[in-house]
């Protein structure tokens, strides 16, 4: 365990949720993984719902920061859009994990309300960034921007799901390339 138990718990919970979803989060297993007693874990997070909420919130905040970094480091609007799929590919590169919020989104009916809210914010952050990028690239107008942004987000998340279900990251790359060939993403 590192010097900050709360951060260690959140990191272990993120990895577990990316591999097993909300339903796969076990407070006992997480405590053992970070080398603390379960009671100590409950000191930091009184419930599984509070832990999952904190992890999902951190996840979308980190994603928003990554997207803004892509924006700031790339002045070409098409280049910004080319980098978007990389944000989802990273989870697959990390032991064939999935986007935490995509996994939890699939469990939506079983999530506590506060976790649902954070999962929705993740999608909203991504769609808003994509809409801004698509508008900047001249690919869409204000009227069609949000629908296209949602289509791109859903397609990229879907490519990740298919690749994970086959433990084949090359499938993800092939699907992203096909989206580029079809014009959904810039080539």
Outline of the structure:
The chain is mostly helical and 187 residues long. It contains 9 helices and no strands.
Largest sheet: none
| Mean pLDDT level | 95
From the helix content, strand content and strand pairing, which structural class follows? mainly alpha
Radius of gyration: 18 Å
Please state the overall shape, judged from the principal axes of the Cα atoms. Answer: elongated
The tally of helices reads: 9
Could you give the count of β-strands? 0
The percent range for helix content is over 70%
- Low-pLDDT runs: none
Distance between the termini: 44 Å
The share of residues in extended strands comes to: under 5%
Element order, helices and strands? HHHHHHHHH
Report on the architecture of this protein:
With 187 residues, this protein is mainly alpha-helical. The chain has nine helices and no strands. Helix 2 crosses helix 3 and helix 5 (77-93) runs antiparallel to helix 9 (169-182). The radius of gyration is 18 Å and the shape is elongated.
Which descriptors would you attach to this protein?
elongated; mainly alpha; 0% strand; single chain; 187 residues
SSE layout:
Blueprint: H1 5-20, H2 27-34, H3 38-44, H4 48-73, H5 77-93, H6 100-106, H7 113-137, H8 142-165, H9 169-182
